[in-house]
Every structure is written in C-alpha cells, then in structure tokens.
Amino acid sequence: MSTTQVRPTNTQAFFVQAALSFGVSAAAVATGVAFLPVDPWMRAFLALGLLYVITSAFTLAKCVRDRQEESTVHGRVDQARLDKLLAEHDPFKTETS
C-alpha cells in the first residue's frame, strides 16, 4: 500500500491574484493618503497607520496559514513525530567511546 500525501495547494493564478489585489489596494490607500489636503503631520500619522495595517495583514495571513496547516492530517502527523522525538531526547546523555 503506497502512502500518497494529499496537501491542498493554491494555484499560481490564485497567488498572483491575491498579491496583485493586495498591492493595488495598498497603493491606492497610500496614494489617497499622499494627496489628502491636510497638514503634513496628519498625513504622516495616517501613513504610519497604513504601515500598521499592512504589517497586520501579513501577520493575519501567516496565522491563518499556520492554523490551516495544523488542521491537516500531515501537520498532525509531523507534530506527533516531533513530540515523540522531544520526549525521547535526553539532553544529559553523553556518548562514551
């Protein structure tokens, strides 16, 4: 019996669409902030907020990806193997020749 690992994958087109969507929306908001008719300090404050939103978006995407990987059978098997290795590991064991 062969073991075939089935892992859900996204197509290259989906990845490109997601990247372009994020890039276009970030550029649109950045352009909007740049051309607001307000004082420079207000514009800088909004730009700082934009950087926070972009960083948060990447963090959220990573968390969603990690949660999805943990829920797969492959991820659970890898975690079980790691747990077994850590349980069997003795850091004070010395090898003598």
UniProtKB/TrEMBL annotation:
Transmembrane feature ranges: 12-35, 41-61
Recorded superkingdom: Bacteria
Database matches in InterPro entries: YiaA-like, YiaAB
A Gene Ontology cellular-component term: plasma membrane
GO biological process: DNA damage response
Domain YiaAB two helix: 14-66
Pfam families in UniProt: YiaAB
Key words of the record: Membrane, Transmembrane, Transmembrane helix
Name of the protein this chain belongs to: YiaAB two helix domain-containing protein
Originating organism: Streptomonospora salina
